[in-house]
Structures are given as structure tokens and as C-alpha cells.
Amino acid sequence: MSDQADKADLLRSLHVPGDPLVLANAWDVASARAVVDAGFPVVATASNAIAAALGHDDGEGAPRDEMMFIAARIVASVDVPVTIDAEAGYGLAPGELVELLTGIGAAGCNIEDTDHANGGLVAPDVRAAYLGEMRAAANRIGVPLVINARVDSFFTASPFTGERRLADAISRARVYWAAGADCVFVPGAGADDLRAVVTEVGAPVNAGLPLPGGSLEDLRAAGVARVSVGPQLYRSALGHLRADLEQLAGAASYAPTA
Q1: Is 114 exposed, middle or buried (0-12, 13-18, 19+ CB in 10 A)?
Q2: For 161-179, what is each residue's pLDDT tens digit?
Q3: pLDDT in tens, 6-34
Q4: pLDDT class for 1, splitting at 50, 70, 90?
């Protein structure tokens, strides 16, 4: 598969409520190729994992050029659609972000509504306008970029708690969907809350694993159309590395540093 528009169309078609696309997020070329070799039809990047591997904090703590260099290497290394975690857009105008993403061959992207510069969440109408301009830019370029709008109402950046978090998530998801997003992502929400978002919004809904108090089967039952594991595979790989290193250091009589 080589045509970028075809890859975007394929990615969009795999969002099936109740039979979700499961994304195993990669952080470098080796992990991306491992994802494909395991049979996954799409590669997603994990900004948290890429930033950590580069020695930076998550939340746009890593320089944009470094993040996009890794993303471009991943896209070039596999022949399946790649959706890129673009965090909150790295301060770029919507058209600039779309040009950057499509220029490196992305079929889709995540865009979140946490305001990393000022704290809290971006106002929903402001983020909706941004998404609408992204959609218009993708249409002009001719690549139907699959835009996954992340709704951070269940994160600590949100000013809401309890039932108000769900109401805010539904409200944001509705305006993002209407603005041109292809999917809405509500990380941190449980199965019941996700079911409510699916019912109330009508858009394909992305959820994260591990699910608070639930499983992949619970997400299927809730009607979720896409599931991401985010940085979990990177953390698992790092855990195995540490265990191997501890065993090797013990055999060599090296004491761990503080």
C-alpha cells in the first residue's frame, strides 16, 4: 500500500463501533515494525513514550522537530497507515500542523484539548474551530487525514469532578465531532461513561487501555470504535529491560545506583 489517501480511508474504515480498531502504540522504528509483524493493520505513535525515549517530559516537553523526526521515521519504515500523536498541536496553526503531518505521510493524528502553555483545557469552541480548520486544510491538500480529537475532561487538567466531567466530555465531543473530527478520544473514562459518550454523541469513540475497572470486552460492549494502549508497551519494554539489567548487574556484582 503506497497511496496516502488510501491509507487514510482504510484507517477511517477500521473504526467500527463494537468491533474496535486496537492500536498498539509505537515509539521508534523497531517497535513500529514489531507492531506490524504481530499483525496489527495500523501503527499509532505514543507521544509520551517518544518523549520519554528522547529524554523529555510528556505534554509538549519535547521539541516539535525531534518528535516529528521520529514520527517521520516510523511512517517511512512501515507500509500500513500510521496515525501520529500530535499532542496539542505544538503551537502550530491548524493548516501548518496538517501540512506537517501529511508531509511526512501520516494517515491520521491525535489532537488533544489540554492547554500545555497555560494550564487547564482549551475552551471547546476554540478547539472546535481549530479542528474545523484542520479538516479544511486536509481537504485542500487532498489527504483525508483521520482526526482523532482527544477530550481531556477526565484528566487532572480539567476543572470538573464527578458527573460534571462526563457532561463536559459529552459537550466537547459533540462540538469536536460537528467541527470535522472523525473520532473522539476520552481517556480516563470508565466503561459506563464511554457508553454514555457513544450514545449521546454518535461519533466513533476511542478509549484507552488499561480501562479503569474494565477490559477490552467491556469496551466492545460499550460500543467503542477504537482502543489505544498509549505508552503502556514502552513501559512494559522498559520494565523487561530493567529486570534483565538487574540480573546482569547482580551477576557482575555491580550495585544499583540511587
Answers
A1: buried
A2: 888 999 999 999 999 999 9
A3: 999 999 999 999 999 999 999 999 999 99
A4: very low
Model confidence over 89-143: pLDDT tens digits? 999 999 999 999 999 999 999 999 999 989 999 999 999 999 999 999 999 999 9
pTM, to two decimals: 0.94
Looking at the DSSP assignment, which residues form a beta bridge with residue 108? 83, 146
Comparing CA positions, the residue from 194, 206, 188, 203 lying closest to residue 152 is 188
